[in-house]
Amino acid sequence: MTRTVFVLTGAGISAESGLGTFRDRDGVWARFDPMRLATPEGFAADPVLVHEFYNHRRRDARAAAPNPAHAALARLEAGLAARGGRLFLCTQNIDDLHERAGSRHVVHMHGEVLRARCTACGTETVWHEDLGVETPCPHCGRRETMRPDVVWFGEMPKQLDVIDEALAEADLFVAVGTSGAVYPAAGNVAQARAFGIPTLALTLEAADNAGLFEATRLGRASETVPAFVDEVLSAKV
Ligand code: APR
């Protein structure tokens, strides 16, 4: 049976790679103020502080390694394609662990910390080094215009039209390692249900929108995701 599976991932899938989640007890937002570090207003008020915060996150992302959950989703993408099916992988994460695990098609709805954007000319560039106020745009040369190519609170997530189209075509919706606290991603499960699509959550603790999922499997992503992928590829799901 050809499958079109929509998988939404959050910080929980990268937790076992050593990258912090946001809302767990010792999460990033328990230690830092998102209004100062993850909003356009915060960046305008103190760009040096915000650059420093994302430089740390970029270095951590580069030092991290994909875990078995990332590898399993890359295996799912290849396995479904071999059957004429499709995996639509949408992540809220700004790291590149899905790509480094072998996933070839990843939609980063909250952008990528390993890319930078010039607010003057709009050029987006792959960026692995530290970024600062004085960093000149590699395209237009202006200074004080470069920012991490990530989506902050109050900004429009990326590729929402592509995401909505993929949801309409899916025959299974799975959320991995996300608290369901941030929209529009947190609303995907309701959209899937409205389309009559079966829904499954794979997470360590029940998400804020847990009641909307038909099934929830609690556990570490590095265990639950490979088991799920085995089931799909052996056509038990
Ligand atoms: N395996 C599976 N799930 C895990 C694991 C793990 N090892 N560790 C934590 N989790 C789960 C938690 O139970 C929680 O439900 O991952 C989820 C992490 O939730 P958040 O920290 O809120 O992360 P996320 O849902 O991705 O946040 C969404 O908020 O701040 C913004 O832009 C940021 O993309 C982020 C968005």
Automatic annotation (TrEMBL):
EC identifiers of the protein: 2.3.1.286
Record keywords, A-Z: Acyltransferase, Cytoplasm, Metal-binding, NAD, Transferase, Zinc
Subcellular location: Cytoplasm
Superkingdom classification of source: Bacteria
Cofactor note: Binds 1 zinc ion per subunit.
Residues noted as binding substrate in the record, renumbered to the chain: Y54, R57
Catalyses which reaction(s): N(6)-succinyl-L-lysyl-[protein] + NAD(+) + H2O = 2''-O-succinyl-ADP-D-ribose + nicotinamide + L-lysyl-[protein]; N(6)-acetyl-L-lysyl-[protein] + NAD(+) + H2O = 2''-O-acetyl-ADP-D-ribose + nicotinamide + L-lysyl-[protein]
PROSITE patterns per the UniProt record, alphabetical: SIRTUIN
Residues of the Deacetylase sirtuin-type domain: 1-236
MF (Gene Ontology): NAD-dependent protein lysine deacetylase activity
One Pfam family per UniProt: SIR2
Gene3D superfamilies with a match to the protein in the record: SIR2/SIRT2 'Small Domain, TPP-binding domain
Residues at the catalytic site: H110
Main subcellular location of this protein, as a coarse class: cytoplasm
Listed SUPFAM superfamilies: DHS-like NAD/FAD-binding domain
InterPro entries referenced in this protein's UniProt entry, alphabetically: DHS-like_NAD/FAD-binding_dom, NAD-dep_sirtuin_deacylases, Sirtuin, Sirtuin_cat_small_dom_sf, Sirtuin_class_III, Ssirtuin_cat_dom
Enzyme class, UniProt record, top EC level: transferase
List of residues binding NAD(+): 10-29, 92-95, 177-179, 221
Cofactor section: Zn(2+)
Binding site for Zn(2+): C118, C121, C137, C140
Role this protein plays: NAD-dependent lysine deacetylase and desuccinylase that specifically removes acetyl and succinyl groups on target proteins. Modulates the activities of several proteins which are inactive in their acylated form.
Family the entry assigns: Belongs to the sirtuin family. Class III subfamily.
Record remark: domains: 2 residues (Tyr-54 and Arg-57) present in a large hydrophobic pocket are probably involved in substrate specificity. They are important for desuccinylation activity, but dispensable for deacetylation activity.
Name of the protein in its database record: NAD-dependent protein deacylase
Gene symbol of the encoding locus: cobB
